[in-house]
Fold:
Amino acid sequence: MKVSVKVPATSANLGPGFDCMGLALPLYNTITIEETVLPGTGVEINVFADNDSIDQLSLDHIPLDENNIAYKAVELLYNSIGQTPSELKINIATNIPVARGLGSSSAVIVGALIAANELLGRPADEAALLSIACEIEGHPDNITPAIVGGIVISSQEDDGSVVYRKLDWPSDWAITVCVPDFELSTEISRSVLPTEIPRKDAVFNAQRLGMFIQAVHTKDSELMKLALKDKIHQPYRMKLVPGLDKIIENLRHFDNVLGCVLSGAGSSILIISEKNNLDKIKNIVRETWADQNIKCQIKTMSVENNGAHVVSHDD
Ligand code: HSE
Structure:
């Protein structure tokens, strides 16, 4: 049996929603798991680029043994029903840039889990898949939109269950995704965060998150301009993304820009705007990064409303 699952990229945090908010984007990894016939062959993992713009060097660093996150996901699912994975071939076709804050790891975890779940006859429902995936990832902000699509606010409760609600993204707002040519690992990007934050900064973020949800709900661009701010992760990460402070400063002069935020743990940036002047916005980012000798790929995208899904299932 062979199952392929297509999973969208995701952008987490969206400014004030650190570790609890994210959206799916129309860029996809495809994870295929095939049962192999020879007994005792273990689990074979292959990772390859599915698109010329994926940097082969970043794929070369991905482990192909039991430390691979796809393997960990499959193992957790098998273990949850008292089995051990073996005689499996896992192929990971990569279209989502790696270590750029676009949820490439979450997509692999989710794709591997859903494909393995199909092979096993679907022992896990959506709630169980969410819990297992978040156990590996550590937070639900990328995992949830990767599984359910859309823009999602989520939490992981003490018992491991994931609670989420989808928001309706206003169709008048554009999302411009700016991907620089340098990687930033989530591990490094989380290591610069303090373990405790001042109360005034926690209050600031709670205010912005409330504003964000109401701004999306009522399509209120002026409220969104106040909402797309953060004091609990971005200020600490600024030094890891050269040029981000200048890009934010240069975009302040554009009335149609609602905000510019770090995508997940970086290194990509998201610009939320109204749909006019998009070329000028892109030029500002391109030129500001070029001044720092950073090349980038920039694309305006819509929110992907569909989450991970099986694209082929052969017996
Ligand atoms: N919320 C996470 C972070 C996303 O900002 O570190 C990356 O996994």
